[in-house]
């Protein structure tokens, strides 16, 4: 039996005084002041046991991690046509890259780059009565925690500075791959990214992917087949142009966000959420990746 508490405490100890911690995302001004010294880990086994260390109980902006949750909400509601509007190939490009979108006639490479997430946002804006509230309630239900909320300042900060996302949404609209107004889709997208969670809440939110889709939702659960496919997309596309590196170093499906969070999972075994706000050049948490590399190396628990 692995002493998980000892493993994550050792990783925290190894990394907590690291000098080279990457750079906090400052292209979203409201995120620029987050203290790069934060480092939290929360591990949740499928049998319900949990292990935590460091700043596991502080809220942070989940940013692109939300893209997996919008996909998980949309897929059971729109299973037939979704994959006609967004592909499932890794892009090998940064999360906000646009030239492939033009080359490929407005069909984003996958749902985890920004353009693909905007198509999923558009689907939810079309399907939901009160899109932002309904999605927030979905997340609250998945985690079974009604306190989860948007950070409205972060959403507003992105609205004021998100020129790349405006460009992506306009391009999608020009190619006929957005049904709704560009501003409505972006408003939804900026809010989904501005949800705040702790490592503990995030490890809970992703249990469904480790558990063949099953979680505490009463309706709209993922089927085992849908959960399998989302895991495949996380593995191949969850870290943008560093997806290969993450598979090589860590060997788990996962997703990062520019708030410095990473959540990863081993089907049938566990989910693990790590938060360290400093990012590497590819926009993924620098120490978060190192922590997870140490975790799968020390425990020998990975999909490979
Ligand atoms: N990789 C990320 O977390 C990017 C999300 C961010 N909201 C953006 O659209 O730029």
From TrEMBL:
Keywords for this protein: Acetylation, Hydrolase
Catalytic activity entry: L-glutamine + H2O = L-glutamate + NH4(+)
Top-level taxonomic group: Bacteria
EC number from the UniProt entry: 3.5.1.2
Keyword match Hydrolase: yes
Residues at which substrate binds: 64, 114, 158, 165, 189, 240, 258
Pfam families membership: Glutaminase
Single GO MF annotation: glutaminase activity
Keyword Hydrolase among UniProt keywords: yes
Assembly: Homotetramer.
Family in the record: Belongs to the glutaminase family.
Protein name stated in the entry: Glutaminase
Organism encoding this protein: Gelidibacter pelagius
Organism classification: Bacteria, Pseudomonadati, Bacteroidota, Flavobacteriia, Flavobacteriales
């Amino acid at each position: 039996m692995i002493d998980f508490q000892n493993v994550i405490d050792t990783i925290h100890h190894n990394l907590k005084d690291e000098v080279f911690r990457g750079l906090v995302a400052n292209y979203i001004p409201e995120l620029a002041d987050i203290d790069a010294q934060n480092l939290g880990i929360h591990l949740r086994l499928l049998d319900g046991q949990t292990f935590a260390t460091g700043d596991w109980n502080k809220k942070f902006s989940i940013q692109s991690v939300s893209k997996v949750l919008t996909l998980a909400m949309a897929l059971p509601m729109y299973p037939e046509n979704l994959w006609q509007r967004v592909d499932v190939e890794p892009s090998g490009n940064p999360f906000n890259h646009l030239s492939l979108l033009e080359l490929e006639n407005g069909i984003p490479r996958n749902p985890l780059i920004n353009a693909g997430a905007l198509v999923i946002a558009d689907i939810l804006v079309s399907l939901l009565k009160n899109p932002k509230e309904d999605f927030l309630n979905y997340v609250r239900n998945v985690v079974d925690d009604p306190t989860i909320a948007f950070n409205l300042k972060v959403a507003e900060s992105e609205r004021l500075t998100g020129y790349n996302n405006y460009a992506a949404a306009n391009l999608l609209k020009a190619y006929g791959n957005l049904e709704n107004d560009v501003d409505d889709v972006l408003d939804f997208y900026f809010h989904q990214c501005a949800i705040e969670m702790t490592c503990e809440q995030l490890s809970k939110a992703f249990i469904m992917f480790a558990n063949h889709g099953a979680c505490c939702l009463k309706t709209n659960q993922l089927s085992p087949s849908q959960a399998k496919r989302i895991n495949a997309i996380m593995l191949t596309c969850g870290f943008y142009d560093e997806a290969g590196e993450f598979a090589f170093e860590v060997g788990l499906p996962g997703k990062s966000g520019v708030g410095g969070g990473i959540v990863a999972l081993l089907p049938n075994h566990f989910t693990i959420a790590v938060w360290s706000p400093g990012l590497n050049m590819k926009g993924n948490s620098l120490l978060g990746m190192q922590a997870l590399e140490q975790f799968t190396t020390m425990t020998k628990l990975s999909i490979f």
